[in-house]
Amino acid sequence: MTGSAAAWVALVACGVIALGVDLTLTLRSGRESLRSALIGSLGWVVAGLAFAAVVRATLGASHAGTYLTVFLLEKSLSLDNVAVFAVVLSAFAVAPAKRQRVLVGGILAALVLRVGFVAGGLAVVSAAHSVLVAFGAVLLVAGFRMVGDRTSESTQPGVVRWLRRRGVSATFGALVALALTDLVFAVDSVPAAFAVTRDVFPIVAANVFAVLGLRPLYDLLAAAMDRLALLERALGVLLLLIGAALVVEPWWKVPEWAILLAVVTTLSAGVLLSLVSPRRVLVAVGGGILLAAGAAMLVLPGPGLLVIAAGLALLATEFLWAKSALNSVKKRIPRRKRERVG
What we know:
The protein is mainly α. The chain folds into two domains: 5-259, no CATH class; 279-341, no CATH class. 80% of the residues lie in helices and 0% in strands. The protein has 16 helices and no strands. The N and C termini lie far apart (69 Å).
């Protein structure tokens, strides 16, 4: 364990303070609005990113970079948890007034289980280096399942059915189910962090800020899940990439910057393609290329205005602002050339 005592003390202090502020603002109101969920989610992201400065001050720049990579990885892979959280809360028919308290209790229990899982997993990896290949295989299988079509996205988890058959109360059953379900997801996300580092501190610190930020993220994504239809497949692609990195790790260590780039690019693409239709993206790319080429032709020889007009005409099929810009450009084109643009 390479984390210094100061780093661990700072982690506990920052986590407790951030959690206290979050709970005070949330439980006081009793219900969560979309605006406050967005602010809370961004707040936990900012807190997680800002903690890199603490890591840098206590452990050095190298450890800070490792922590940031693991944090972004764990944060992105934790997004899929909230969909299952919604299924669990619905299955136990938890009253809306109690959902925030159930979420908080389940997430805190999940964090304790994750820390134990991290410690156990790192002990296994230290004992047998080849176990990384097995972890990579687990991620590859999970990634293929997430990328493929799912015929029953909202099937009730087996652990939920098991608890309900034994007469467990809805509130306590949901709390336990949330914690255990998150631990199941940790089987995917925690081994993925092994591709970055086998130092316990950055993995535990990243999980603290990623897991504690699930509460506002649940409210945010619960409202936006219908618009993020491709996010789950993007996470599946990310798991495939991380799994491949683990499988080849005994022979070649994938650079940290490459893993970080894969996390940011894949997650951004999943959100973008979920919010924007593929046709709109293609039109934006094609029109942007024509605009760039036309701008270059204004300096170099070539029909620059005609190419710009063509790019704007393409963009105008999807974007209103391009129509007014196209009319302005047409006025600067001689009438004979203007007829070609149409």
